[in-house]
């Protein structure tokens, strides 16, 4: 393969001195998306990518599209006899929000009806406690800058909105549907330039009142990067407010008795503050306060106390920490001979649900589940009952919703996704390998019958306590059906083994994550699954950082890379997008010790001229307000300049989409490009006859 010419990217003599270390930044000009030079370079990169021959792309696109015709179904949210849920039929671009009752079901909100161009997404929704009104948030073009509306459930008319600056806002209704607590950013004019994405506050909003007159109840004077949570008990008596600095794995927590203080000025009592733990509260129908915490329990535990005595010294263990499984959620079913708690766990990322006596916490049984896969949140009726609902998926099963009845002990299918799809016959094996320091790491390997070495994609994430659990993936199945192998490594930094596992891969321990990925690759090669010239790695967002670091640390180990919406300039990442909220995960270049961590692996700064790097495709999104595309732009320019081999370095820019949800058709096109690129550079011959 002959090395192709790349668009000219001039190199500036910019060198910063950080804590005595010279930090060159020759492509800083690419941080300016509106600069004519940047636009010209991006146009040339786009033309280069579009001129690239990707054999098998059409077939992969068709298979991904066909598999996504399974559609989707969401777990119901109950309010009395009304249920609220989302469904996407095979030919729809986005899920549609429905309400159902004894008289049937009807559409409440169809994003495509709002926007035939399919650029509008439903970000969140929350019915009031009676199910008569519903607050929802939508954003356009992938920017995730949610606008809040309130509608009348009976006829769908808009009562309120839009209220802007409601990105990532929880909605906590007070009884009666006339008011709710929510989170809103301060107006841009009220914050320093460049900090418009931060400075959130908790407000009380009365329906029909101008949001400019909302009463601020919390957040003034606190950390600019704080995220806030807010909830109100079903009876309206108890308010809880939480605060987390960015994405820190800890939170401060307060409660207020709304019978003893007004909703406009709740008297907040501290539950925990400056404590290194994550804690959430549920005010039970039985008058008890249920505490879900990892305080002194990295895998999680459930405690009980009284709402009047919410602090840790009053907590009593109900569901103690498990030695092996991570506690994920719980629900209470109180219409039984003895009230019970259903407790969700993940054991090495495989889900299960146990049943416990509500008073003692003793284990009395387990909930039958469809297989070895992933279970979504367990949902009960707010007023209590004997039923619970949960979603289930695995590597070959599209997500469906199941119902468990504690009176019969049976689990039944509540609703399947609406589309029937032909799923290829594959097998999933969970293997264990050892990382560089001897730590055991789990990995899921999806393949068809056959022997290696075969073209293989190794996928990972390894950050923010997010677990890589089994799930239906059209991209994975299309790749495996074509003859490849797909491996998902459960790296440190994730949540598969609890909070200690997360912290073993964050801050100064970040190199452990990269070592875990390299060890996964070596295991796949040593066991004959693949070979280095047939092995690709893929990751997005924090996973894009993962594969960016991997290709610079071990370019010999990988044949191809897909790096999507990545963080790559770890010296300047805090200056863009939501970067300032992540220094609790990565560290800050402003702190000498933490600069050392970042400088040690920052992918952009580890590129060396004269090295033969893997074939690399960067995919970025123009409306991404979380991770700015500049990371990939600068990295692509630097790799194209440094590449000594003949394997291509390409950049795929996409407009009017962002970091999160997107139309199905856009997901199909992205997946087809990524898979076809990896197929070409790992030797996977894609044909319709397989």
What's the helix and strand layout?
Elements: E1 15-18, E2 21-24, H1 36-50, H2 57-68, E3 72-73, E4 77-79, E5 82-88, E6 96-101, E7 104-109, H3 111-114, E8 120-127, E9 133-140, E10 147-152, E11 158-163, E12 171-173, E13 179-185, E14 200-206, E15 215-218, E16 226-232, E17 238-245, E18 252-257, E19 269-272, E20 279-283, E21 289-293, E22 301-305, E23 316-319, E24 326-333, E25 340-347, E26 350-357, E27 363-366, E28 374-375, E29 379-380, E30 387-394, E31 397-405, E32 410-415, E33 427-434, E34 440-447, E35 456-459, H4 474-481, E36 485-489, H5 499-503, H6 511-526, E37 535-540, H7 542-553, E38 560-564, H8 583-586, H9 592-601, E39 615-621, H10 630-642, E40 649-654, H11 664-682
Parallel strand pairs: 35-36, 35-37, 37-38, 38-39, 39-40
Antiparallel strand pairs: 1-2, 3-5, 4-5, 5-6, 6-7, 8-9, 9-10, 10-11, 12-13, 13-14, 14-15, 16-17, 17-18, 18-19, 20-21, 21-22, 22-23, 24-25, 25-26, 26-27, 28-30, 29-30, 30-31, 31-32, 33-34, 34-36
Helix pairs in contact: 2-4, 2-11, 6-7
């Amino acid at each position: 393969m002959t090395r192709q010419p790349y668009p000219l990217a001039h190199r500036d003599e910019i060198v910063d001195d950080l804590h005595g270390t010279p930090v060159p930044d020759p492509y800083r000009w690419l941080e300016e998306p509106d600069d004519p030079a940047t636009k010209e370079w991006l146009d040339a990169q786009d033309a280069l990518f579009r001129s690239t021959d990707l054999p098998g792309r059409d077939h992969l696109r068709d298979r991904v599209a066909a598999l996504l015709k399974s559609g989707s179904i969401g777990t119901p949210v109950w309010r009395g006899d009304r249920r609220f849920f989302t469904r996407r039929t095979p030919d729809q671009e986005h899920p549609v929000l429905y309400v159902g009752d004894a008289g049937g079901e009807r559409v409440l909100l169809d994003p495509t009806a709002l926007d035939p161009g399919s650029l509008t997404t439903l970000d969140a929704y929350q019915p009031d406690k009676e199910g008569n009104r519903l607050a929802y948030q939508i954003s356009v073009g992938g920017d995730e800058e949610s606008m809040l509306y309130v509608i009348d459930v009976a006829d769908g008319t808009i009562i309120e909105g839009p209220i802007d600056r409601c990105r990532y806002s929880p909605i906590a209704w007070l009884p009666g549907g006339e008011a709710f607590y929510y989170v809103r950013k301060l107006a841009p004019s009220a914050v320093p330039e460049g900090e418009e994405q931060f400075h959130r506050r908790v407000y009380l909003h009365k329906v029909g009142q101008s949001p400019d007159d909302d009463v601020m109840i919390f957040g003034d004077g606190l950390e600019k990067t704080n995220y806030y949570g807010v909830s109100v008990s079903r009876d309206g008596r108890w308010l809880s407010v939480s605060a987390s600095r960015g994405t820190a794995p800890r939170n401060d927590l307060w409660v207020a008795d709304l019978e003893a203080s007004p909703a406009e000025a709740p008297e907040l009592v501290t539950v925990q503050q400056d404590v290194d733990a994550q804690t959430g509260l549920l005010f039970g129908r039985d008058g008890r306060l249920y505490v879900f915490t990892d305080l002194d329990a990295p895998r999680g535990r459930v405690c009980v106390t009284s709402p009047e005595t919410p602090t840790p010294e009053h907590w009593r263990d109900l569901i103690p920490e498990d030695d092996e499984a991570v506690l994920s959620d719980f629900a209470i079913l109180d219409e039984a001979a003895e009230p019970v708690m259903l407790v969700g766990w993940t054991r090495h990322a495989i889900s299960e649900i146990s049943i416990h006596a509500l008073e003692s916490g003793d284990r009395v049984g387990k909930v039958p589940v469809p297989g070895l896969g992933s279970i979504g949140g367990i949902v009960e009726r707010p007023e209590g009952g004997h039923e619970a609902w949960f979603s289930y998926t695995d590597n070959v099963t599209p997500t469906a919703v199941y119902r468990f009845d504690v009176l019969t002990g049976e689990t039944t299918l509540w609703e399947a996704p609406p589309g029937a799809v032909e799923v290829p016959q594959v097998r999933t094996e969970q293997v264990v390998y050892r990382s560089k320091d001897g730590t055991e790491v789990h990995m899921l390997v999806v393949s068809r019958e056959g022997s290696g070495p075969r073209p293989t994609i190794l996928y990972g994430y390894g950050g923010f306590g997010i677990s890589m659990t089994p799930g239906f993936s059209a991209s994975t199945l299309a790749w495996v059906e074509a003859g490849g192998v797909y491996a998902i490594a459960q790296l440190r930094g994730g949540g598969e083994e609890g909070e200690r596992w997360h912290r073993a891969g964050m801050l100064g321990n970040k190199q452990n994550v990269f070592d875990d990925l390299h060890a996964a690759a070596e295991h796949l090669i040593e066991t004959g699954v693949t070979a280095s010239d047939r092995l690709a790695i893929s990751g997005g967002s924090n996973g894009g950082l993962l594969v960016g670091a991997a290709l610079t640390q071990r370019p010999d180990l990988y044949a191809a890379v897909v790096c999507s919406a990545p963080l790559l300039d770890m010296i300047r990442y805090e200056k863009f997008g939501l970067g300032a909220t992540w220094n609790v995960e990565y560290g800050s270049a402003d702190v000498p010790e933490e600069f050392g961590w970042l400088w040690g692996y920052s992918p952009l700064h580890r590129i060396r001229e004269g090295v033969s790097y893997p074939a690399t495709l960067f995919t970025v999104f123009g409306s991404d307000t979380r991770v700015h595309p500049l990371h990939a732009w600068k990295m692509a320019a630097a790799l194209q300049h440094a590449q000594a081999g003949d394997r291509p370095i390409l950049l795929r820019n996409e407009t009017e989409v962002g970091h999160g949800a997107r139309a199905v058709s856009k997901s199909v096109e992205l997946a087809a490009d990524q898979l076809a690129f990896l197929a070409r550079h790992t030797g996977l011959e894609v044909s319709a006859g397989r």
